Amino acid sequence: MNKEHWNNIYEMVSAKPIINAIGSVTMLGGSTPIPEVKRAMDLADSSYIPLIELEEKAGEFLSDFIGVPAAYITSGAGSALTLATAAIMAGDDDKLIEQLPNTDGMKNEILIQKKHRYWYDRCLEAAGAKLIEFGSEIKTTEKDLEEAINAKTAGVHFTMYEQNTDPNALSLEKTIEIAHSHNLPVLVDAAGQIYPLENFGKYVKMGADFQCIAAKYLGASQSSGLALGTKDMIRKISKQSFVGYEGRRIRGIGRPHKVDRQEMMGVVAAVQNWLTMDHETRLSNIEEQSMTLINILSKCPYIEATMIDNIIGHQPFGVKISIKNHKLNVHDLVNLLKNGSPSIWTRVVGENDFIEIHMFGLKAEEEKIVGEKIVEIFE
Questions:
Q1: What is the DSSP string of 251-277?
Q2: Which of 52, 110, 224, 257 has the most beta carbons within 10 angstroms of its beta carbon?
Q3: Closest Cα to residue 82, out of 233, 230, 237?
Q4: DSSP annotation of 362
Q5: What are phi and psi of 157, to 5 degrees?
Q6: What order of strands is seen across the sheet that includes strand 210-214?
Q7: Which fold has domain 35-276?
Q8: How far apart (Å, rounded) are the C-alpha atoms in residues 357 and 3?
Q9: Would you say residue 5 has pLDDT above 80?
Q10: For 282-296, b where at least 16 C-beta lie within 10 A, e where not — what string?
Q11: Does the structural domain 3-30+278-377 have CATH classification 3.40.50.300?
């Protein structure tokens, strides 16, 4: 591949760009802002504005547009989780807000199903909370949650992944019912639950006190996200945030979670675009890209390539790649692609014996480059 394929700004610092065949992963940049977002960010850059006011007004606009009680723009879904956790522990008390992450004297335990433990629950602990598991790796019951609630419980966390709902986990409906019967808030990590559109804000509408969304999935910048929730929850999140720190002069833990005016207006533009765009065309284009890759890989007798037919969430379709009757395994293929020219990043998730290729991070025609390079490796 010649250099002209890349925007060579990275050469100035001797960094090497790659082809992202993994998808919307943070370590590779997370997103490519769409034109509507870039325009909004450029326009927002034309003047200064008090950010405490912009956060409030942008949140009001988004809550009306989405149809939820309240909204708040954060520096990512993980940031929203941390701020929400701080909010349910410290609440409105400025003394407690400044005390965090020291939680002495506060309710500081967040209950989480053992089946729901995941890489990003660390964001809850960052506020000073202690995670308490309930249920088992096999099943979670209503009784498990009831018995886990105690005088130190601050709230209940729920990890939502509609693409692969676990029938043996305690449902969100039951979680909300039980938690609210004990006057406990429910926090939902729904970072990627943006399609079908009825899932956008769905969990707050079901009764959860909070849910987060990663705005990068909507075509906003990577360092932006949304907190949706009750008016009380979002008000408390605001008090923990960087505008609370700077605008109210209360030294909460949210100071590093800064969002500038360009990112705020970029999120507004991204949400507007996502909720009004033609998703049939979007899905059709991604399916076509996936089929192009499958057709190229069909030339290789050692590769089995099949369509991932999921359309729920932030990464629809894609291609599952397995190796058959060859000395190379999928981990070898990941390394060969990564160390090739151009460098193509793929991955094997967990203990699977296949690679998943997603179109989210691929530019036009790059699926052809990926396919041709894989075929070339096996020639």
A1: --TBTTS---HHHHHHHHHHHHHHHHS
A2: 224
A3: 237
A4: P
A5: -100, 145
A6: 70-74, 225-229, 210-214, 186-189, 153-159, 109-113, 130-134
A7: Aspartate Aminotransferase; domain 2 (3.40.640)
A8: 24
A9: no
A10: eeeebbebbebbbeb
A11: no
Q: Where in the chain is the domain with CATH 3.40.640.10?
A: 35-276
CB 210 within 8 A of CB 84: yes
> Does residue 338 contact residue 344 with C-beta atoms inside 8 Å?
yes
| CA count, 13 A, side-chain hemisphere, 311 | 11
Q: In the chain, where do the E strands start and end? A: 19-20, 70-74, 109-113, 130-134, 153-159, 186-189, 210-214, 225-229, 303-307, 319-323, 344-345, 355-357
SS3 label, residue 70: strand
Question: pLDDT-derived band of residue 322, with 50, 70 and 90 as boundaries?
Answer: very high
The three-class DSSP label of residue 109 is strand
Pair of tokens at residue 124: 């809850």
Structure tokens at 99: 């005390």
Query: pTM higher than 0.70, yes or no?
Result: yes
List every span in the chain annotated with CATH 3.90.1150.180.
3-30+278-377
Rounded to 5 degrees, φ, ψ at 208 are: -65, 150
CA 77 to chain centre: 5
Matching residue, tokens 């094997």: 348
CB 219 within 8 A of CB 37: yes
Name the residue with tokens 């004990």: 182
The overall average pLDDT reported for the chain is: 95
Nearest to 372 by CA among 302, 297, 303: 297
